[in-house]
Specification:
The complex is a heterodimer of chains A (about 170) and B (about 450). Chain A has about 170 residues and is an alpha+beta fold. In chain A, about 45% of the residues lie in helices and about 15% in strands. Chain A has a four-stranded antiparallel sheet with strand order 2-3-1-4. The longest helix of chain A is centred in the middle third of the chain and has 27 residues. Chain A is elongated and about 80 Å long. The two termini of chain B are about 15 Å apart. With about 450 residues, chain B is an all-alpha fold. The radius of gyration of chain B is 23 Å and the shape is globular. The longest helix of chain B has about 30 residues. Classes of the chains: A alpha+beta (about 170), B mainly alpha (about 450).
Chain lengths: ~170, ~450
C-alpha cells in the first residue's frame, strides 16, 4: 500500500460531526470518509454522496431470480416430468408463486450482498484501515487524505479544530 | 445544512370546518340515499345502469340481458336461498359499515401501536389518525341494528335461520349446529356490542388525554395514553380476528379459513392507513399540517406499501392453501366467487387483486414516489377503492347472491358512508389543535429526517 498520510479528526458528538462535515467541505477540504459507531441520518447527504443505486441491482437480481424460478418450475413440472397432482393442470400457476417469490428474494438478497462486498472492496483478503479504534465505541472519526488535498496539514488541522474536533491525529498507512 | 433548517411552524393550527363544507357533505350524504332509492326503483323497473347487473337476474326472470331487476316476484316465497333487491341494499349497508368501521378503528390502532412502540415520527400527524375513530359508532350502530332486526338478520346470516341448529327440524344443518357454541344469538350480540363499545370507549380515553395534554403538558398524559393503548392492543389482538369471523366469515357459515382474521385485519389496516395518508395530504393541500415533511410522508408511505404487500401475502396464502388441498367444502368459497351466480363476482374478485397489489407495488415501490403527494394520492386511491372491492367480494356473494352488481345503489351507499365519515372526521379535526404542541415526542417528529 502506498504511503498515505491521513489526518484524523475525532469528534465527541453526532451533531458535531454532522455539522463539521458541512463546514469542512465548505472550506474546500475533501473528506476521505467518516466513521461512526452508528448510522447518522443525513450524513450521506452532508458528505455529498449520490443516492445508492443498490435498488437497481436488487431489481435486476430479483427479476433474474423470478425468471430462473419460472424456468425451473415450468420445465420440471410442465415439460420434463409432468406429474398429475390432484387433477390440476401440469403448470398450475398458484403453486409456483412461493417458488417464484423465494428465488426472487434469494437472488436479490445474495446479489445485493455480493454487489456490496465487491463495490466496497470488502473481499476476504482486504485489509481495512483502522483510523481510530474508538470509532466503534463512542467517537466519531473524520479521515482526510492529505495527498488528495491541496491545503497543508496545518491548515486542515485548524479547520478541523475550528469545526469542533476534540483532537486531530496523524495516521500513516 | 439540511438537518438544521427545519422550519418550525406555527404552534396553533386549527382546522376550520366551514358551514359551507358541512352542508356540502350533508347534501352528498342525502344524495347517496336518493341514489339508492333511484337505483332500486330503476332495477325494479328492469333497467340497469351499473356493471355486472346485466347477467340476468337468475331464476325465473325472463328479461334476458336486460335483467338485473329484482325478480322478487319470480322467486316465490318459499325458496330458502332466494335473494331480492332488498338483499342487495342490505348487503351494501353491511359491507360499507364493515369497511368504514375498519377504517375508523384503524385510526385508533395506528395511534395505539405508535404509543406502545414509543414511535416519535408520527406525532405531527397524530391528530388526523385520532379523528378517525369518532366515526366508529355510526357503522357500529348500523351493524347492530341490521343484526337485531330479524328480517335483515336472516338475510345476512344463514346461521340465524329458524331451527337450523335444532335436531329434527327440517332446516337442521349438522355443520352449522356444531358451531352453535360460538354462533348463537346472545354471545354474538355481546360480541358486537363489545367491539363497537370498547373500541369507541378506549378511543374517547385516548382523545381525552390528548386534549388534556394540549392544555397542561407534562408526561402524565403520555403514560396514561400508553396504558390505554396497551389495553387496546391486547383487546384488538383478539377482537380483530373475532370481528372478522363475526362480521364477514360467518356470512358463509359452512366455510371457514384460519387465515381469515389476518386477511380481514390486513385489509382494514391498509385501507385505514391509506385513508390517513389521504387526509394528511388533503389537509396539507389546504395549508394545514405544515410540520409534516416529506420524510413523514415517506414513512407512512412505507407502511402503506408494506401492508398492501402483507395483505397480498395473506390473501394469496389463503387462496393457495385452498387451491392446493382442493377440498370441496373449502373451494366452494372461491367457486362461488369465480363461477357462482352467473359469474358476476369474477370481476370484483380479480379487480380486488389488481387494485390492491399491482397498482400499489408499481406506484409506491420507488422512494421518490413515496415523497410525491400526487403519486401517493394515486396509490392510496387505488388501495381505498381496491379494499372496497375486497369487502364487496367478501360480503356480496353471501348476502346479495344472484342480485349483486355494481350500480347506482352501490355508488349511493358508498357516497353516503364516505360523506358521513368525512363529516365526522372533519368535526373532530376542528375540535383540537392540529399541531400537538405539548406532546413529549413532538421535537423528535419535527426533526424527522430519513
Amino acid at each position: 500500500m502506498a504511503d498515505n498520510k491521513y489526518l484524523v479528526g475525532v469528534f465527541d458528538d453526532e451533531d458535531e460531526v454532522l455539522h463539521a462535515v458541512g463546514e469542512v467541505r465548505h472550506s474546500g477540504v475533501k473528506i476521505h470518509e467518516v466513521y461512526t459507531p452508528f448510522a447518522i441520518h443525513g450524513l450521506d447527504r452532508a458528505l455529498g454522496y449520490d443516492r445508492p443505486r443498490m435498488g437497481i441491482a436488487a431489481f435486476l437480481f430479483g427479476i433474474t431470480g423470478t425468471c430462473c424460478a419460472l424456468l425451473l418450475t415450468f420445465w420440471t413440472m410442465g415439460i420434463d416430468w409432468p406429474i398429475n397432482v390432484g387433477g390440476k393442470n401440469f403448470f398450475p400457476w398458484p403453486t409456483n408463486v412461493p417458488i417464484l417469490f423465494e428465488l426472487t428474494v434469494l437472488l436479490a438478497s445474495f446479489g445485493m450482498s455480493f454487489t456490496f462486498f465487491v463495490m466496497e472492496g470488502m473481499g476476504p483478503t482486504a485489509k481495512p484501515i483502522i483510523f481510530d479504534v474508538r470509532s466503534t465505541d463512542d467517537k466519531f472519526i473524520m479521515a482526510i487524505d492529505l495527498s488528495k488535498n491541496k491545503l497543508s496539514e496545518g491548515e486542515i488541522t485548524d479547520i478541523l479544530k475550528d469545526s469542533g474536533a476534540s483532537e486531530v491525529n496523524v495516521k500513516e498507512v | 445544512m439540511a438537518h438544521n433548517t427545519h422550519e418550525i411552524p406555527s404552534t396553533e393550527e386549527r382546522f376550520e370546518f366551514s358551514s359551507e363544507s358541512k352542508s356540502k357533505l350533508l347534501i352528498a350524504a342525502a344524495l347517496g340515499v336518493v341514489l339508492v332509492a333511484i337505483g332500486a326503483f330503476l332495477l325494479n323497473k328492469g333497467w340497469s345502469i351499473g356493471v355486472w347487473e346485466s347477467h340476468g337476474a337468475g331464476h325465473g326472470a325472463a328479461a334476458g340481458h336486460e335483467g338485473g331487476h329484482a325478480a322478487a316476484a319470480a322467486h316465490g316465497g318459499g325458496e330458502h336461498h332466494g335473494a331480492t333487491l332488498i338483499n342487495r341494499i342490505i348487503a351494501n349497508l353491511w359491507m360499507n359499515s364493515v369497511y368504514f368501521l375498519g377504517i375508523s378503528v384503524v385510526g385508533m390502532f395506528f395511534i395505539a401501536y405508535n404509543y406502545v412502540a414509543k414511535a416519535g415520527w408520527p406525532v405531527t400527524m397524530k391528530r388526523v389518525a385520532e379523528a378517525f375513530p369518532s366515526f366508529i359508532w355510526v357503522p357500529g350502530a348500523i351493524l347492530i341494528i341490521l343484526y337485531l332486526v330479524p328480517a335483515t338478520r336472516h338475510m345476512i346470516f344463514h346461521w340465524t335461520h329458524e331451527g337450523i341448529m335444532e335436531k329434527g327440524s327440517e332446516n337442521y344443518d349438522k355443520i352449522i349446529a356444531t358451531k352453535s357454541w360460538y354462533l348463537n344469538m346472545p354471545f354474538f350480540t355481546i360480541r358486537l356490542l363489545a367491539y363497537v363499545g370498547v373500541w369507541y370507549y378506549l378511543w374517547t380515553l385516548v382523545r381525552k388525554y390528548s386534549i388534556a395534554e394540549e392544555q397542561e403538558g407534562g408526561l402524565d398524559y403520555y403514560y396514561k395514553s400508553r396504558n390505554v393503548s396497551k389495553i387496546f392492543l391486547l383487546f384488538f389482538a383478539v377482537t380483530s380476528s373475532t370481528s372478522a369471523w363475526d362480521l364477514s366469515m360467518s356470512i358463509d357459515t359452512h366455510w371457514f379459513s384460519t387465515m381469515f382474521g389476518w386477511y380481514h385485519l390486513a385489509s382494514w389496516h391498509v385501507a385505514g392507513l391509506a385513508a390517513i395518508m389521504f387526509a394528511v395530504l388533503i389537509l396539507k393541500d389546504k395549508g394545514y399540517l405544515k410540520a409534516v415533511n416529506s420524510s413523514h410522508l415517506h414513512d407512512l408511505g412505507k407502511l402503506i406499501f408494506g401492508f398492501s404487500i402483507f395483505w397480498t401475502y395473506v390473501w394469496f396464502s389463503q387462496y393457495l392453501l385452498i387451491f392446493y388441498a382442493n377440498l370441496p367444502e373449502e373451494t366452494i368459497y372461491f367457486r362461488e366467487r369465480f363461477t357462482g351466480h352467473d359469474g358476476r363476482y369474477w370481476w370484483p374478485f380479480h379487480i380486488n387483486f389488481v387494485l390492491n397489489f399491482f397498482f400499489p407495488i408499481l406506484i409506491l415501490m420507488a422512494r421518490d414516489s413515496k415523497r410525491r403527494p400526487t403519486l401517493l394520492k394515486l396509490g392510496c386511491a387505488s388501495i381505498l377503492v381496491g379494499h372496497w372491492f375486497d369487502f364487496y367480494q367478501m360480503h356480496m356473494p353471501g348476502i346479495a347472491k344472484d342480485q349483486g352488481g355494481i350500480g347506482i345503489i352501490e355508488w349511493g351507499t358508498t357516497l353516503t358512508f364516505a360523506s358521513l365519515f368525512i363529516y365526522f372526521v372533519a368535526t373532530q379535526l376542528s375540535k383540537a389543535n392540529l399541531y400537538p404542541k405539548k406532546h413529549p415526542f413532538l421535537e423528535e417528529s419535527l426533526h424527522h429526517d430519513i
